[in-house]
Amino acid sequence: MRVRHVKSSTVLVESGDTSILCDPWILDGAFYGAWAHYPPVKLEPEDFDVDYIYISHIHPDHCHRETLERLDSDIPVLIHDYNWDFLRHNIEAAGFDVRELPHDERIHLGGDLHVNVLASDDCDPEVCGNHFACAWMAEDASTQGVDGSTQIDSMAVFDDGEHTVLNLNDCRWPMSRHAAGRVKQQYGKIDLAMLQYTFAGGYPQGRIDYSHEKLLEERDDRRLQSLENAVGFLELLEPDYYMPFAGSYTLAGDLADRNEYVARSTRTQARDYFADEDRVDDDAECVLLNSGDWFDVAAGEQSVPYEPVDPDERQEYIETELADREFTYESDPMPTLEAFREYVPAAYENFDAKRRGIGFESETEVVLSLVDDHYMRFTADGGGHEIVEGLPERTDRRRVRMEMDPRLTLRILKGPRYGHFNNAYIGSHLGFSIEPDIYERSLFYAMSFLHA
Predict the structure, then answer these.
(1) The whole model's pTM is what?
(2) 361: closest CA among 375, 379, 348?
(3) Which of 34, 30, 23 minimizes the C-alpha distance to 62?
(4) N or C: which end of the chain has fewer CB within 10 A?
């Protein structure tokens, strides 16, 4: 069995004549054009003649529509059998047949190759509630008469009867500790563990109220937190080999100058961190692969040595190639205020319904930019909404101010078919401030339902 690293979380697992492509994001432009690869990927989607595709979750650096549309739609796509069907619907809309795999069931793919897909929360809503303050999801799932995962992510175990590869992609510690522990208990020896080592999201680079020094400080803190979380998996799994991957990207377009603040470690930094001070068992060996290169799990050998990225060459590529790219929404006409008035009332009602549904209430006031110096002003305690001209004066309430390109804001308000708040946030399109600086996870979750 061998593993070919394409880029970020995109890998090809092969055993004998059977192959499976995982989380295909090959073309630049995920998250409305914001995310790009460096070094650029030389492979094309058409280069992959595989038997299966596995997609771990819905985020576009894992389920990338443009990449999928250039893959052979006759290839069956494997996903976890989630409570909610938005991942399946998105893949089917790209023309593929989807096979939903039950939690923790070893499935034969062909030859000696098997796959076992587990939900990141081990299909236990209590796990999600313990770690991410979302125990409400358990109640929400039970009212639908459905048992299963309340999270959007999954992990996959590949084995050929002799060797085992665990693909953790974006699964986070400690929430996924239970599922990873189940894998360790069932399979015993893990030959290769592939895990996220960096943070993919809009923080801290999206903060418009932080100084340069504060952004750098938060970047470094978040970077170390991601590495420490990865150590939790490595201590639990005790793999023979481990490969830091997933979550790597470079911002393009007008966001290119935010790359300095992205909480991103290089893979060599990750390797050195894990090796330092005996954080990981000395018997575990770190595997770093160039794009397109292979690691043979049985032999413990890779096709060619890894070549670290030159930071100066990367910066030159950002300045000469990526910074001039346009985002997908920039081809839209600039919307009028009347266009926003059409969607704001229903969007607020959906936001407030979700806020009430998860039992979240806060004195926080949200001020969201619209167009022509107008803002949508609303509260997280049922106090209603209004459209105002000019940035409102501060009140005694906690305030979250959100700034986006009006064209993207309108897409989001129109509905998920056009744009989604969470993707705008992860893609770093959202500039925001929080006064006082207290992050409310439930507020940002409810914002994903601010649409008509």
Answers:
(1) 0.93
(2) 379
(3) 23
(4) C
pLDDT, one tens digit per residue, over 81-125 is 998 899 999 999 999 999 999 999 999 999 999 999 999 988 775
User: Which residues, listed in sequence order, are joined to residue 159 by a DSSP beta bridge?
Assistant: 114, 164
**3-state DSSP helix/strand/coil % of the chain, to nearest 5:** 35, 20, 45
Q: Tell me whether residue 282 is exposed, middle or buried, using C-beta atoms within 10 angstroms of its C-beta: 0 to 12, 13 to 18, 19 or more.
A: exposed
Q: How far apart are CA 391 and CA 396, in angstroms?
A: 15
Q: State the sign of the Cα–Cα–Cα–Cα dihedral 353, 354, 358, 359.
A: negative
Q: HSE (CB half, 13 Å, CA atoms) of 372? A: 10
What are the beta bridge partners of residue 13?
3, 20
Residue of 256, 258, 257 whose CA lies nearest to 204: 258
- Report the distance separating Cα 223 and Cα 106, nearest Å: 34
- Per DSSP, the three-state class of 209 is coil
Half-sphere exposure of 278 (CA within 13 A, CB side): 0
- The pLDDT tens digits of the residues spanning 185-231 come to 999 999 999 999 998 899 999 999 999 999 999 999 999 999 999 99
Integer Rg of the chain from CA: 22
Distances, alpha carbon 44 to alpha carbons 62, 92, 243, in Å: 16, 22, 23
pLDDT at 282: 80
